[in-house]
């Protein structure tokens, strides 16, 4: 039985890990870094006669409507000493960048209805748009494909206060999600209903685990509009099905494994019994040779007797 439990525990661990790796492998999608580069270019275009410390909203190309961007140029020394409030981001004192830049630009992104396109998160749905905060050197305001500066909150974390967060569905718990620039995804607790913290730059949002599978695929087809942008919901449905499927598959596998373990157990037991019987048979045969060629009935009697113990009783 110990073996059975160990196998089951092992299976649970394997399923859990495959789910975790699934989470980090699928997001952000491969297009996210290219989008960051494109939005940096478009955000910098808002700097015509820029004043330091003033945020400028910028235009996105027409194929990206629904996304909002802004750019804010700052002296890094004053940012470190004073912090800044920039849209939803409340940056405290102590923010450092590396390599050092005398002036830097903070690019703000609000991915709006395109959040799930660029940051798909299987098994979760967004309660707020994905927001991005990215830092670049401000030395050349017409530069493209700039490398990111590494931004760190060295004292208190950056506070992100999301606006218009959708209500949390009953029975679910909202989580902050952080997409690091290296592609890793972290979930953490939401504070005061709509706030998340960050210690570095990246992309942030609030999510909940998706509820049980929505109506059957047929109904979804009837309801969904024929627009190419309508694929998001269907995709998340199919993801729900994949999760349900893998859970059922996991259960079936556990049952099969349990069966197998039990069978092996039984088989071993039988084998053991057979060996004991065989040993007994040999004993009988020896016994019979010493006693004489008596038939089976007397052999049966010999087998059931506790021969060895009784022989040694004084
Ligand atoms: C959108 O348009 C811009 C400029 O025309 C182009 O550089 C970019 O590749 C396009 N992006 C997408 C995601 O289609
Ligand atoms: C997002 O909304 C804009 C209008 O605000 C629309 O043009 C665009 O097609 C939408 N994109 C998606 C992916 O739904
Ligand atoms: C700024 O970047 C642009 C585009 O990469 C380049 O053409 C220009 O020479 C750069 N200016 C300076 C002063 O480096
Ligand atoms: C995400 O979690 C990992 C592991 O717990 C941790 O090493 C990493 O620093 C976290 N990243 C963020 C942005 O919190």
Automatic annotation (TrEMBL):
Keyword Membrane: yes
Pfam families reported for this sequence: DUF1191
Alphabetically ordered keywords of this record: Membrane, Signal, Transmembrane, Transmembrane helix
Segments crossing the lipid bilayer: 241-264
Keyword Signal: yes
GO cellular component: membrane
Signal peptide residue numbers: 1-25
InterPro entries: DUF1191
Region annotation (Disordered) ranges: 215-236
Record-linked PANTHER family: EXPRESSED PROTEIN, PROTEIN, PUTATIVE (DUF1191)-RELATED
The protein's name in its UniProt record: Uncharacterized protein
Source organism: Rubus argutus (Southern blackberry)
